[in-house]
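Materials and Methods. Structural model of DUF1772 domain-containing protein. The 165-residue sequence of DUF1772 domain-containing protein from Micromonospora arida was retrieved and submitted for structure prediction as follows.
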Amino acid sequence: MNATLAAWSAAVTLVVTGAIAGVYYAFSVAVMPGLNAADAGTAIRAMTSINQRIQNPLFFVTFSGPLVAATVTGVFLLILGKRSAGVLFLVAAGVYLVGAFIPTVVVNVPMNETLDAAGVPTDPAEAVRVWASYSSAWTWWNSLRAGASLISLLLAGLGVYLSGR
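The predicted structure was written out as tokens:
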């Protein structure tokens, strides 16, 4: 095991964790508020379209990358004797797993699938009710994912700092 491999792995961790944190952050502070400003039927159609198109290989790498890369980096650093840095990367992976990965699989994706399956209600009042319920809960969970991803990024950054000491 050499330090160059650990450094590259750490760099990948920072990039993918920063990227996914940015996605979640953007949804919470811009996309969802923007959709909330539209009429409910339009918001439902737009969100369904986004959810269908976000399922692509690049997003999958970005979504799973923090968990895999932080874990691999943590192990590499432990092997290199950089215990504190390695532990920080493993904690970063754990925070991402519990705060972003699991909520995505258990909460946000099932909510997306339910919204997609239901379609846009023909009754405008029902569309407003469906969207308000979905948007409120989905955004809360998404904000949790954003926060966990940002904490994971911070921990990985501290790990990089400690690995160079």
